[in-house]
Amino acid sequence: MRKKILNYDELVREAGFAINSPTKGCIVILEYGYKIWEIIQRRLDQLIKDTGHSNVYFPLFIPESLMNKEKEHVEGFSPECAVVTHGGGVRLQESLIVRPTSETIMYETYRTLITSYRDLPLKYNQWANVVRWEKRPRPFLRTTEFLWQEGHTAHATQEESIEEVLRMLNIYKTFIEEYLAIPVIAGRKSDNEKFAGAVATYTVEALMRDKKALQCGTSHDLGQSFSKVFEIKFQDKENKQQYVWQTSWGVSTRLIGAAIMAHRDDKGVILPPLIAPYQVVVIPINNLVNAEYIVRIEKELKDKGLRYVIDNRDESAGSKFNKWELKGVPIRLEIGDRECERQTISATSRLGKKVNTPINEFFNSIDSLLLNFQNELFVRATEFQKTNTFDIDQFTEFKNLFGQGKSSGFVKAYFCGSKECEDTIKSETFGVTSRCIPLDETNGEGSCICCKKDVNGKKTIFAKAY
Amino acid sequence: MRKKILNYDELVREAGFAINSPTKGCIVILEYGYKIWEIIQRRLDQLIKDTGHSNVYFPLFIPESLMNKEKEHVEGFSPECAVVTHGGGVRLQESLIVRPTSETIMYETYRTLITSYRDLPLKYNQWANVVRWEKRPRPFLRTTEFLWQEGHTAHATQEESIEEVLRMLNIYKTFIEEYLAIPVIAGRKSDNEKFAGAVATYTVEALMRDKKALQCGTSHDLGQSFSKVFEIKFQDKENKQQYVWQTSWGVSTRLIGAAIMAHRDDKGVILPPLIAPYQVVVIPINNLVNAEYIVRIEKELKDKGLRYVIDNRDESAGSKFNKWELKGVPIRLEIGDRECERQTISATSRLGKKVNTPINEFFNSIDSLLLNFQNELFVRATEFQKTNTFDIDQFTEFKNLFGQGKSSGFVKAYFCGSKECEDTIKSETFGVTSRCIPLDETNGEGSCICCKKDVNGKKTIFAKAY
């Protein structure tokens, strides 16, 4: 009997990453999902600190008057805000906005923290929860509350702040490619898609297994838009008052969704070893005979510093295999009487390879097995992205590709960047949007895929997006 | 000229732990304060995981109807709640409570997670922010929003759940004594002071330098109060339906305040090395001459895995000394021409000891210097607690001790435990409350300090509290 192929939402639930919560639009992140977040956090936190940033913590609630200070910002976020109107048993004189992002609350304080060029650069990061009202929630990808880190820096010069924007974008790209084994395209957003209040937004975009795009992280060049509104000034070396140049950047628990969506197959999830809660699952076929052998295997796994689980539950081996395949554990060890007797290990990779080798040999090679697994996943995802990226110069072809609202990967096309064309494309392709202008694309000449106006520069990437 | 002695709030601000935020009742935790939280988190998280708990994440918002399910719980917390009435641009049909604690939102899900004895014990923890409206905020000690961890477990038997309550209380006690160098009294709260909805609340109470008590952490025996209301049942081995037995326990960023308040002197903070953001500060007296020597010192500090800072700012040595004394760094190295020439280190401990030793010798002894510092702080705080604990059996004496509202440490007295007596004591002593009945107190006989009724059992600890 063929098993039903689970869709993304089912997969998240059945594999135990998260379940729906009693609060609309919000999920409960279960231990199997949260462990991935902890691994992501630990590594990313180190990368953020290594580049000179410090962690701080600003309040969850933003007084409405602060939120309203930067015009574009409030217009962009108001429709998504949760509003606290009562506190301590009384109606508040001023409502509090549950932070959708922390520019306003942080920059009000930056004004008092920064007075001289000696206070710059100011490089803060915080790990926090944020709330953006979500009408069509998807676990991890779009939820009303989510967890993230948000970096907020202030610099003396524009040059320095742009350098910071690209440095953090590059850290995201490297991290996602290395740890999540997902190739991403780093690029600049169109004006239509940029962050509310930013001068420019940079993004890393990935292609999921269902051929939809996922924005995995953003880095914003805020210029002086906020510093002028929040009066964040410093005295420069020549004793002149100057406004600071600012950046903000973040990634969220959406990355857990990305890892699930980018590597799945019909049996379930396939997790990259570097972020897998368990890199190895040990399944004893017969609990009585080989208990001692299992102890030895456990010792080897522990000594290697690997994350592992031993599944001793009172269930059939077959149902255990299915469970851990669904959950995406990279390597499964099946230990029966034969393995015990011959002192061997039978190992099956979640990508299908099987080996049966003497135990010493196996543990000598396990690091490279996992490394190869990680690389193979990345190569597989890179090939998938390549196969599903289309260079197109006719709008009809573009429209056909996404006909009936299907998702068909990335389209590369010349685009004039106007809001009119972006809206036309969206409405005639069942919702395709521009994802970014890739940074490493070469310049060329062509005509806008929509209005046919001459375009001198780089092609833009389009896709159906989450 | 004698410097002004800073009060607690000033100390927190001037030493750079936290500053007031634009949001009423909330603070901004700056990097120097947040680093302490990160150190606390990392260690405590390990202790929590080592005892078999897993981290998860539940929503920030609790639907009002859930919050209202357990009667005592909602009565206790309603006056402190922040309420979201609008979201996504519209008025909500049901208001959302910003979690003051997560029993209700978590246990609604526990019902679906637990069906059989095989699902027990369920041992979850989460690191999160919570909101409890605060009219008289003090940084770290009482703020409208604070950060904490909250553990929530469910067990098959009452015995097991009580064991868990005491296990976690003991972990808090050991952690606070070892890491924060603060002696705490572990005990049980009076009915008047227990957690809203709990059968019993256990606490660890510490004495601050200003002779006020601080509740540092609590562990609640929830019995079956919540499981009966939330219908959390399991099928036991005999196929009978049973309600689970539950516990919850937490510590918060208040611990940062505890560390600041428990060890201060007139010059500022004194931080225990195990939680100090910087264990060592290096102050080069002359930047030009000894740059190379400083590089060597830095290498030694790094190799030792110590947390350190080198203060190269363009300021006088004296003002640097004051700054780092205020901030409480345990060991200060002063490196001038003489030290460089003779290859020695001049080190001054924040507790006053000075040494000048050859560099090799110094770095061979630095671990024990820090260890001794940590121990000395604990001994000092223990003596302070002892000196300021009074065994009292006359109410007049009790009242005199706290006359004019002054704080005078811990009082040990027989107490009948009634709400009437607790209220009388509070009103006649300018707000003294019962802190706990210490677990390790021996049983005795006496009469209630207030109503003179016979008491057969342990004495109770009283104090003015934060």
Offer a quick outline of the entry.
2 copies of one chain form a homodimer. Chain A is α+β, with helices and mostly antiparallel strands and 466 residues long.
Task: Describe this protein's structure.
Two copies of one chain form a homodimer. Chain A has 466 residues and is α+β, with helices and mostly antiparallel strands. Chain A folds into three domains: 8-262, Bira Bifunctional Protein, Domain 2 (BirA Bifunctional Protein, domain 2, 2-Layer Sandwich); 280-369, Anticodon-binding domain (Rossmann fold, 3-Layer(aba) Sandwich); 389-463, C-terminal domain of ProRS (Translation Initiation Factor IF3, 2-Layer Sandwich). Helix content of chain A is 35%, strand content 29%. The first copy, chain A, is built from 14 helices and 25 strands. The first copy, chain A, has helices at 8-14, 31-50, 64-67, 71-77, 103-113, 158-179, 225-230, 254-262, 291-303, 317-327, 337-342, 359-387, 395-401, 419-428; strands at 18-20, 27-29, 54-55, 61-63, 82-87, 90-98, 122-131, 145-155, 184-188, 200-207, 213-223, 233-235, 241-243, 245-252, 280-284, 308-310, 331-335, 344-349, 354-358, 389-391, 410-413, 433-438, 444-447, 454-457, 460-463. In chain A, the strands form six sheets. The first copy, chain A, has an eleven-stranded mixed β-sheet, sandwiched between helices. A five-stranded mixed β-sheet of chain A has the order 16-15-17-18-19, sandwiched between helices. In chain A, strands 4-6-5 form a three-stranded antiparallel β-sheet. In chain A, helix 2 (31-50) packs antiparallel against helix 6 (158-179). The radius of gyration of chain A is 25 Å and the shape is globular. Chain A starts with 7 loop residues before the first helix and ends with a strand. The mean pLDDT of chain A is 96. The interface between A and B is large, with 53 and 53 residues. Strand 5 of chain A pairs antiparallel with strand 5 of chain B.
